[in-house]
Every structure is written in C-alpha cells, then in structure tokens.
Amino acid sequence: MFFVYIYAEKEIDRANEMRIQSHALADELRQSSNDLTRMVRTYIATGNPRYKQHYQEILDIRDGKAPRPEAYDDIYWDLVLDDARPRGFGQAIPLLDLMRQAGFTEAELAKLAEAKSNSDKLTKTELAAMRLIESIGPVTTLQRQAAIHMLYDATYHQAKADIMQPIAEFNHMMEVRTLSIVRYQEQLALILRFSVIALGLLLAYALWRAYRGLHHTLGAPAELLHAHIARIGRGDFVSPIPVDADMQDSVMGWLSQTQINLLQIDTSRKAAELSNHRLTQLYAALSQCNQAIVRSASEAELFPKICRDAVTFGGLKMAWIGHLDEATQLLKPVASYGEGLNYLEMINISVDAALPNGRGPSGTAFRDDAPFWCLDFLNDPATEKWQVLGVQFGWAASAALPLHQAGKVIGTLNLYAEDASYFDIAGKNLLLEMATDIDFALDNFSLEREREQMKQALLVSEERARLVLDNSLDAIVSIDHTGMVTEWNNAAVQIFGYVRDEVLGRDLAEFIVPERDREAHHQGLQRVLTTHHTKMIGKRVEVSALRKDGSEFPAEMTIAQIRRGDTIFFSAFIRDITERKQSEHQIQHLAHYDVLTDLPNRLMLQDHFDYALSLVKRKQGRLAVIFLDLDHFKDINDNLGHSVGDLLLMELTRRLKTLLREEDTLSRLGGDEFILLLPDADANGASNVAQKLLGTVSEPYHIAPYELTVTGSIGIALYPDDGSNLEILSQKADTAMYRAKQAGRNDYRFFTAEMQASSARNLQLLTALRHAQDKDQFALHYQPQFSVDDNHLIGAEALLRWRHPELGFVSPAEFIPVAEDSGMILAIGEWVLRQAVSQAKAWMEAGHEPLIMSVNLSAIQFRHPDLPALVTRILNETGLAPEYLELELTESVAMHDPEGAIAIMNNLHELGIRMSIDDFGTGYSSLSYLKKFKIYKLKIDQSFVRDISTDIEDKAIVSAIINMARSLGHKTIAEGVETKEQLAFLRAQGCDEVQGYYYSKPVPADLFQQFLQKR
After folding, report:
1. Torsion over CA of 606, 610, 611 and 612, rounded to 10 degrees?
2. What is the pLDDT of residues 439-484, one digit of tens each?
3. 402-421 pLDDT, tens digit each
4. pTM for this predicted structure
5. Measured between alpha carbons, how far is 32 from 27 in angstroms, rounded to an integer?
6. How many domains does the chain have?
7. Domain shared by 637 and 562, yes or no
C-alpha cells in the first residue's frame, strides 16, 4: 500500500513535469520567432552581417539542420555576445520532432505545426527585407527605411499574431489536459495517504507492543543502545554506560560491562603502547648517544649531543649535564637542550647537603653517587624550590644520574619528562645503561688524554733527551759491550778535548782512563757482561780521568745499563768536579774559619781547645781563656759604616797575631768579640798577655780617611780553677769581661766567685723574666702628679712592678737592665704603654676628668724606628686622645744621639704627643740641643730635691733648672717631694708640678681611684 501511494505521488510529479516541458517547447517556438525578429531588425538597422548569421543559425537549429545548444530553453540573444560563444552543442533535431516526442495530442500538435508554418511564412518577409539592403551598390537611406518598414508594418505584426495565436491555443489545450491528469492523481494519492496512515497507526501499535518487549530485552532505547554501540565501535571506551539496577541482565547491562572490560583492555593497551613508544624512543636515544660517543673526541663535543639526542629521540622535555666546580662546590651546566633552558641561566645547585639548594635531585645524586628518580616533580619535597618552573615548563617527572670519570663522580645527567610515568622500570634500566655508556666514554676521554699526554711527554722527553745530550754540561759517553765508544756529546768534547770523530769506535779506556785504572776498568766491564750485574750501575762514583793534553782531573761518574734485546750498552754521565772539589775545600775552610779575619771560628776553637786541654792534662798544667770585647765598637759601625769597622777588625787581628805564641789560639766569635787560648799559662802569664792586648788594642788605627782609637775590655778564666770545658770557661771569661766594662772599660778582670753569684742572679732573673708577662706577673702602679699652685691632680706616672711567686718583689733597677740586655724590653715596654693608655681611657669613660698619663721610655724603645707607629696604633686601639699621653726619656738617652733624638721627638710631636726629659740635671745636656728638643717639660731629679731644704747647692741647681725651663718655654715637675718644706721651696721658685711621697707613693689602679674621686 505504501509503495502504491508513493507511485501515485510520482505520477503527480510526472504530470507536472509534462506540463512544464510542454510549456517549454511552446515557449521555444515562440522565442525562436521573437529571436528571428530581433536578429533581422538588428541586421537591417546596423548592417552587421553577424546578425544575419545569427538569424540563419536560429532557423537551422529550429529545423534540425544545426545542433541544438545546451540549455536552449533560454533566449538566443546572449549568443550575440562574443564572450558567450561558443556554447556547447548537443544533437541536431527539428523542434517539431521534439514536440511529437513529448506526447502531445494530435490537436495540440496541429496547433504547434500551424504556428511553426506561420513562422516559416514570416521568414520570407524577413529574408526579403534583408535582400533589400543587400542589393549591389551602397545602401541608401530609402532602401533601409523600406526594409525597416517591412518589419514594422501592420502586415508584419499580423503575421506575428498568427504565430502567437496557435501557440496560445496550444497552451490552453495542454493546460486543460494536464490539469485533469494532475487532479486525478492527487485524488488517488489522497485516498492512498489515508490508507497508509491507518496502516501506520496499526503498525505503530504493533511496534509499540514489540518495543515494550524489546526495551526490556535491550535495557534502553534502541537509538541510545545504537549510540553506545557506535561509540564503542569508534573505540571510545572512556565514558561509562549508565544502567538501571533492574536492567543489569539486559543487552545494555551486558554492553555496560563490555564497555568496562574494553576500557580496561584499552587502558592496558595504551599503557603498553606508551611504554613501548617510550622504550622505542629511549632505544633510539641510546643508539644515537652511542653513535655520539663513537664520534666524539672530548666531553665538550659529546655532552651537547647527549642532551640533544635525549630530547630529540628520547621524547624528553629538557636535558642538561652539570659538571662539579671544585672551587664553589656547585654543579655548573656545561651542555643543555630542550624547553626551559633559561632556567639554567641563574641555576645554583650545590652538592653540599647542608644547603637548601644541595638537597635537590641533582645534588643528592652527586653526593650519594646514586640515581635520583623524581616521579612526581610538582609534589616531591626534594623539588620544592623548582616546582614553579616545573609548572611553567610542563615537567611532571625528572631524573638525575651521576656521571663518573676514573671511578669518581664528576657531574650529573639531568632529565625532565612531561609524563609522570616516563621513568618506569624499563626506562630506568635504559637510562642507567646510557649513563654507564657515558661513563665509559668519559673514561676513554681521560685515557685518551693521558695517552696523548704520555705521547707528548715522550716526544718532549725524546726532544729533551736530545737537548740534554747536546747541551748537557756533563759529558755523556756511550759504549757497546766491547767497550767501544758509540756516543760522544758536546760536553765530552769540552771536558776531554777529543772531537767525536777521534773517539767513535775506539776503546774508551785507551784515552780517558788513567793507565793505573785501565786493568780494573776492563775487568769490571767483563764482569758486567758475564754476570749482568754491578754495584756501580746507577750510583755516583768519583774517579780520575785524563784529558787529551794528558792532564788528570777529578770526575764524578754515573753509569746506566741499557739492554736492547740481547745486546747491552752502557752510558756514562761524567762531570768535571775540579771546581766542586775546590769549593768543598773552601767550604770546609769557611766552616772552621772566620770569613773576615780568617781566624778560627768557634767550631775550630773547640778543636784547638780539645787538643790543648789534652796536652795540659798530660802535664798537669794550666790553661787560660781570655775573652776580649771592644768598647763602643757599635758606634763606629753606626756612624762610619760597617766597612770601616771591618777594616779596623782586620787590622786588630793582624796586631793580635803578633802577640801570640805558636801554641796559642786566637779566635773570632763574631762582631767585636775574640777569644784567646793560652796553654801552659797561669794567672801571671794571663795578666801579662792581657796588659799587652789592651796596649795593642788602644793604639790608633789609620783607616783612611779616619784615625780611630778604641779600647777593649778583657775577662780571664783559668783551667782547672774556673772550669774544665770550653763552654764553661768562655762563659766565665765573658762574665769577667762584663765586670771589666762595668768598672769603666779598657781593663781586665779575672773571674771570681762573687761574679758567679751575680751571673747566676742575672740568669735567674732572665729565665723568670721570659715568662713574667705570660704569667701575668707584671703590674702598673700609678703615682699622682699635682699642680703646685692649687694642689689639683693633673696626671699620673705609670711605674712597672714585678712580683715573682718565688723571687718576690723584684726592683726595676735590677730587672730593667736584664730586660734591656736580653732584648725583652721592647715587648715589656709595649705592654706598659698599652696598659697605661688603656687605664687612662678607662678612667675617662668612668666619668672622671681627663688627666695626663706619663710613661717612661727605655733607650732601646726610644731608638726603635717603629716607636711612632706603635704609639699611634695603641692610641687608635684604645681611643685615647694623644694630648693625654706624655712620654718620658732620660737626659742621657736624649744626649746619646742628639740629632736622632730631635728627629724622633719631631715625629712624636707631630702626632700631638707630649715629651719630657726625666732625671734632668744628672746627665750632660747641651743647651744648644736642649733648645731644639720638642719637649713639654723637664723633670727635676729627686737627688736634687731630697736636700733642697738644707743644701744651698741643691737649692741653686733646682732654681737654675726652673728658671732655664721657664725661659725656654718648658714646664717643670719635681719628683721625690716628701716634705712640706720641699713643696714650699718649689712653689716659691715657680715649679709647676710635683710628685712624691708627700702626696702618695705609687699605688695600684684601684687605690688611685681615690685621688680621682677627690678631684
């Protein structure tokens, strides 16, 4: 029924199509007539033959004489345009034949034939009009007008109407016929439509019943089931299929479970494919890395390729290699590739676990010498410092693998992946294999460098050997197993006098071995060839050798044995040691004799003493040791120079030798100290010699351009009374000499027991003094200084005190000379200065008014060139202003070298430090120098102050000092003031300041605080 309905609908369409086709054919007939009229009129108007041609084409197409253009249902007029031609053509068929094929009725065909016949008749008129303007000769206006008239007159229009009338009648007849057909088919289709609807409703009910059963079986609508099946068929297993609980046994329930199973299978498959893909990439990267290893010659060439291949072939986001900087303990990037390289520009990764940037993957891998796999880069605590970068560059996982060279970790290979599962077990194994291959390459590079270095070293060694051979100062002589010369270098030519051609191939023993040694030479050579062993190989031996001129000289020789296969060669390195032997003799002499005077030194003196003592002991005799030291010899060196002093010592030596017996020994210990050994000499004999020595020493010395006079001090010790060895006797003679100096110099003294005690005391003090400062045995006491006018406290003098746990209180007068003689005075003086300045600053910081701190300087301190710098340094360290420090030096120290004292005082004065002269009046001051000294005050010695109440002379001296100081612009201070009468006299004379027991003895700092509190 449905198909019948469809057929009826099709019949309606065919009837309508027939109507349209019929109208089209009738319209073509009418249109062809109209096109003919247009063409002929245009031709008559323009005379353009193209329109006549078009006219004929229209006739030929309509009559079937020319092929029909495609889509000829349009008007022909568009063919007039040149750009519209040519148009495609079909077959040639008359228009009437097309009409007959269209199924028209006979009446309808008759009408069309009539219209066609009338049109053909009209063409005769049109052709006549065209012929009218085609006559021979030029076309006249009258001819053209006549032709146009023929095409526009009433006859022409009637002819056109005769054509259109049958066509209109055809259209009416055809319209009636086809309309009836269409209406019949429409009625039939309407009946069939209602029939189909009824059948459809019945079918829908049946289908609904079937659907209900099918839905329970399927578990979901068919279209939904189909959609899910289609989705699964497309491979989409991700979206779950929801199924009601009561539909679990349906097709949809089965499909849901199937989807779940397929999803699991697909997930496993994709994971396997991804893993296989990664493994394929890693195998490719590993292959490329191995190729890079084969083709690279150094780390600088290999590392960039490793990083590039890991990213390009391994599918990683980024790779870089860090090398340890030994100085900074940082991993410095040396190669990199991939995305996020700007991360490496400011990277700061340490291998120190104590630093935060040393606890990441790279630092840990380096430090632990083990791979570090970070499978969750964005959440792993180890990567916290770099997780922002991980988000920026898409890093989901990372790995750091240690790289080794010669078994030592030198850096790390660092890899970054966008997939968190990238570093699975298989991937890890391949990356570990890659790291192992890189380690192998690094070892090879190291070995290759070592081989190259060895090669270069060998070349250098060979070149050096050649250079050594050609330029060696030692003769290098080679012989074969027969003793014949095979090598003879330039030094051998110089040493022996033979050129190479004279000796090559000759027996070495014939011309350089002395005749007395030749037999031993030949025997030794044969022994080596027989036993292949000799004690001389590789050892230096001294031998005698001959030159070409026959002269013999000492030589040092080292023999090397060279084996080439079964053949043995020998090379001898021979050095002429003539000069060395001479030097050794000279060194031996210098080791036992003084360079300047050529006298025996202490070492040779010991030998002479031992020999003399052995003789004396056999005779039970006596022996004298005389110690001679020149007085003030240092002044000559300091003022005239050491060269003048050396000439004087040489002249003195010459004089002293004239006084000696053959068995006597004169020795110079150094400087201006001499020792004489007098065997078989008693006290009288030693005394006579000492007197002669003093007389000889004191004679004038003419050292151009100077005439100098010096004296000597002598100490004498006797064997066996004063000792039994040289050390003891010389020490005691030295002690006696020192006592002679104390007695006024230019004299001699024998050693006595009293000197022994004094010397022992000095030694005891010296030993204790070395540790006094370290053991905090020193202390400073402070004696206050007051203004005479108002008894106002203005300063303090710092005085050193030493209390030893065993020796008790030691007087400064006793230990200061020992400190000066031993050189310890500088360290002690610095300690005193620093303590005193610090104490003055401490009192000021405690809120007391500033006072002047006075500190005594020893002669050694004052003359030390570092004194101004030392004072400045201490003032800067403590913060005390220089105007609150006053340095005191004795009058004798200042006058020892007045010019030098002036320079030192000027330096200190420029620093703002006050200077004063202590114990003034006890020395021999020159007023001409005194006025040049940059001093602030003069201190009147207590020896003048003690008796000023009763002694007229002391009064006069004190008054003179005060008046002189005032006239020179200096202040005065008197020390040792103990009575009211002394203070009254000093006040009357205009003395400025005083100190002494009248006010206070020197006291410790804590007691001195009382004076400060009373101010």
Report:
1. 100
2. 888 888 888 888 888 888 767 766 776 676 777 788 898 888 888 8
3. 999 888 999 999 999 988 88
4. 0.38
5. 8
6. 5
7. no
